[in-house]
Amino acid sequence: MTAATLSPPSTTARGAGWRGFGTLFTTEARLWLRDAGTVFFSLAFPTVLLLGVGFAIPGMREPIEGAGGVWDGLTPIATYVPVVLAAAVATPALTTMPVYFATFREKGVLRRLSTTPMRPQGIVVAHLLINLVAVVAATAVALVVATLMFDVPAPRHVATVVLAFLLTVLSLLSLGTVVAARVPKASTASAIGTLIYFPMLFLSGLWTPGPIMPEAVREIGQFTPLGAAAQAMTAGWFEDGFPTLQVVVMAVWTAVLLPLGVRLFRWT
Q1: What is the pTM of this model?
Q2: Contact present, 153 and 55 (Cβ < 8 Å)
Q3: How large is the C-alpha radius of gyration of the chain?
Q4: Which of 77, 105, 142, 164 could form a disulfide bond with 54, CB atoms 3.0-4.6 angstroms apart?
Q5: Percentage of the chain with pLDDT > 70?
């Protein structure tokens, strides 16, 4: 069995292989924080996007009139918040995490780790945790800014929004793992991630959120992880029904992509 394939270790080897994980995690977190571009797009981009749309586009803070249903009285920027939260997950999952994994593969870091007591999986888990922390932090900051600056109302159904957000994290990190699974170079990972990221942003309603989303975009977008995420959180935030289809779509994407990413992943 070569270092490029996965083999099930014994219980003793598995326990020994995870010794020093705390040190590895701390070191990788420090290196992650030193990359200004990664920190900006992972932590600040969703809030900057929200502020830019809210203050730069005329009418975004004026109440909607004549839209009908739950949309009357809301501001356009309020309908934008679920899309921004979905983007807060997609940005690190598709633009930074795959690049990091590909960089480690390109530079032989994972291959060298395979010759040490620390298992190569450790660095993957470390960066999954780092990106998870980044997603939670970016989401928290965006929510605070949305509440203070734009007086965005609290979700109607908090449990639905939380469930949708958790599935958003699972499905998009799973997609990011698939992107990172085999690419040999960081530049390749960046190109593939970007090609997936921007079309999904469009289908999530980044340019046409809430009541102004065209029906065709909505119909197609609800079957993508990011589109389903934005629609599910929008439904939980502003509407009365449960977004069954979108929740099922994200669960299916997770169930397919997560084991696929694990199966395809190569260390060298």
Answers
A1: 0.85
A2: no
A3: 20
A4: 77
A5: 91
How distant, in Å, are the alpha carbons of 53, 211, 241 from that of 231?
19, 11, 12
- Under the banding of pLDDT at 50, 70 and 90, the label for residue 68 is low
Cα–Cα distance list, 115 to 103, 108, 119 (Å): 18, 11, 8
* Three-state secondary structure string covering 153-205: CCCCCHHHHHHHHHHHHHHHHHHHHHHHCCCCCHHHHHHHHHHHHHHHHHHHC
Dump pLDDT digits (tens) for 85-97. Answer: 999 999 999 988 9
Is 120 within 8 Å of 10 (Cβ atoms)? no
- CA-CA-CA-CA torsion sign (199, 203, 209, 213): positive
Share above pLDDT 90 across residues of the chain, in percent, rounded to a whole number = 50
Amino acid at 14: R
Q: Which of 83, 64, 40 is nearest to 207 (CA)?
A: 83
Average pLDDT over residues 36-53: 90
Residue with tokens 């942003």: 201
pLDDT for position 8? 47
Q: What is the dihedral of CA 182, 185, 191, 194, to 10 degrees?
A: 70
Task: Report the half-sphere exposure of 256 (CA within 13 A, side-chain side).
Answer: 9
Please, is 133 exposed, middle or buried when counting C-beta atoms within 10 Å of its C-beta (0-12, 13-18, 19+)?
middle
Residue 189 confidence class, pLDDT cut points 50, 70, 90: very high
Domain regions of the chain by residue span: 19-264
Measured CA to CA, the distance from residue 11 to residue 16 in angstroms comes to 9
